[in-house]
Amino acid sequence: MSANRPNEDGLIARFFAPLAGEGALGLKDDAACFAPRPGHDLVLTTDALVETVHFLPEDAPGSIARKALGVNVSDLAAKGADPAGFLLSLALPVTWTEEWLSAFAVGLGEAARDFGCPLLGGDTVKARGALTLSVTALGEVPAGRMVRRTNAQADDVICVTGSIGDGALGLKLRNAPKWADALSAEEKAHLADRYLHPQPRHRLARVLRKYAHAAMDVSDGLAGDLAKMMRVSGVSAIVEADRVPLSPAVTKAVAVEPGLYDLAVTGGDDYEILCTVPEKDLDSFLKEADSVGVVVSVIGRVVQGHESPVFRMRNSERRYDAGAFSHF
Amino acid sequence: MSANRPNEDGLIARFFAPLAGEGALGLKDDAACFAPRPGHDLVLTTDALVETVHFLPEDAPGSIARKALGVNVSDLAAKGADPAGFLLSLALPVTWTEEWLSAFAVGLGEAARDFGCPLLGGDTVKARGALTLSVTALGEVPAGRMVRRTNAQADDVICVTGSIGDGALGLKLRNAPKWADALSAEEKAHLADRYLHPQPRHRLARVLRKYAHAAMDVSDGLAGDLAKMMRVSGVSAIVEADRVPLSPAVTKAVAVEPGLYDLAVTGGDDYEILCTVPEKDLDSFLKEADSVGVVVSVIGRVVQGHESPVFRMRNSERRYDAGAFSHF
User: Fold this and answer.
1) ipTM of the predicted structure?
2) Residue A265 belongs to what domain range?
3) Measured between beta carbons, which residues in chain A are less than 8 angstroms from residue B128?
4) What is the chain A residue with the closest CA to B90?
5) Residues in CB range of B97: below 8 A, 6 or more apart
6) Which residues in chain A (75-104) have CB-CB distances under 8 A to chain B?
7) Domains in chain B, number
8) Is residue B12 within a helix (H) or strand (E), and if so which, with residue range?
9) Which of A81, A288, B43, B159 could form a disulfide with A76 if both were Cys (CB 3.0 to 4.6 A apart)?
């Protein structure tokens, strides 16, 4: 380490201690102390991000930080859990600079505030290769109320939040594809931003745990993640392809190049919530989702069976059997 | 990924699901669900390990797994916390093989059983560079009873478990140094094993929370870690250098090459517990430590002041001001 850069303790004190939540003990100890509220379970999730796999070297450090926390908070939200805190494990390449780390910490602090998810602890080590981050996030649910991935039931209505495909097309956009010429500057900016900055739907958590039979966050593509949720629940699904919510930007891109629909529903990086809700609760669910400011679309229905889900197009139908994007 | 290797879901089902604890929900969900026992706080710690920084490429996969979990359980133990479970984040280099991963999972499962710390969840991603692991471990303490690093008090007795310097000399041994010629095969095997396989002192957790004012695990060298604990507690320390517990192997190595004493007390990878105990409780502490099978040595005393700790030698004294080993 060069002489003008702080050692690990200095780095923690300078960049990370200001972000520390109550249980972090000012990051002066080796461990955090946390007590969930009485009558609550903890929900725990961990997601790792690797440069070039989950983000790109040219991405702003604050964006990388926000994404690392956001994808974990998205997982919590899908389980009906309110964010409670996180631990960060950071493997920094030898080329790190104070400027980079300072911007990273600022972005992390802003995201932590936005998501209501304070820093509890962490570890910083030397990377042997690219920047690698791992976040473990903790959330709380009333005891026994975590929303499972395995509980979708035949006749449930399938819903998804926000819009699908923006992240995947936002990533593609970096190669300046031909279809991008049809998009306005605002539309291109929208897609790019959606790849960079997942919007975890944590405000939906309490609504999900009230109504959803099953839920997961869409990180590896809608088609593949739906197939996964149906498989572990022992059911199948029919999706009305034209009801999958697309942003104006993706709608325009698909109009120019129809094959992009497949990318939209199989690409990764949506970080929306996919859930199934019993028909009788659908109206209440949609109303309460609206009241917390989360847009929800009905896209299909759970059915008996073990086949992979069918996407019904106008004149055809399609199964995306091997369509799941994987970060692995 | 080559066709004959499983995808991430297949990999989880095959290698990791058999290790899953109750809260892991068979690793079929996106998150784990965990409720600490009523009246207990959770203690949370995370430690990352990077190939060539924390272990070596030629180390057996099962040893790497055991070390990744062991160093985290060691942190929990030092906080007086009983292990409750862990999450694993694994960034695998493109060269991974099923044989490697299978051996890794076997070692992880054995360590999890030995430490009473089941797998709760995880994430597997592609590395861009060397193998990088991050473990987040959870422990339980009765509410308010986590042993802090910041609470050492003047006149406390300073104790350390096991023996110091084995890990550091075990690592040096790989370069076939001259002093190694003086050691028996058993002594060399002992040192090598101590570098590879930390022995977390989790059985001491309940004794520590009963008697210790302050504690931490020794991972970055006794001298540096003691200095850190004294600094955050606002005190100083006097260590009787010849009371620092050395194994027969380290004792012999130091006899051959006296400078190795400094390496023993400043090198990393001990994973022993350093703690301070009020004089009045010392006998009870030592007796109960003995009853759980953990050897404890008294090495010095906490004193007023803000200087870094003094190590008293026979005819001199020494402060290891910049002596802390760092994995960063």
Assistant:
1) 0.89
2) 157-318
3) 50-53, 129-130, 132
4) A48
5) B5
6) 75-76, 78-79, 81, 87-91
7) 2
8) none
9) A81
Does pLDDT of A124 surpass 60? Answer: yes
Concatenate the DSSP letters of all residues of B219-264 into one string.
SS-HHHHHHHHHHHHT-EEEEEGGGS---HHHHHHHHH-TTHHHHH
Place of tokens 């991935």: A149
* Residues A164 and A90 grouped into a single domain: no
Claim to verify: residue B206 and residue B107 sit in the same structural domain: no
Shortest Cα–Cα distance, B143 to chain A (Å): 8
Q: Which amino acid is at B310?
A: V
- Please state the pTM of the whole predicted model: 0.91
Does residue B231 sit at the A interface (CB-CB below 8 Å)? no
Are the beta carbons of B149 and A51 separated by less than 8 Å? no
Q: Are B272 and B172 in contact (CB under 8 A)?
A: no
**pLDDT tens digits, residue range B188-235?**
999 999 999 999 999 999 999 999 999 999 999 999 999 999 999 999
Residue among A8, A47, A52 whose CB faces B328 most closely:
A8
**Rounded distance between C-alpha atoms, residue B147 and residue B289, angstroms:** 16
Q: Which of B7, B79, B129 sits opposite A326 (nearest CB)?
A: B7
Q: Do B88 and A47 touch (CB under 8 A)?
A: no
**3-state secondary structure (DSSP) of residue B9:** helix
> Per the CB < 8 Å rule, is A136 touching B46?
yes
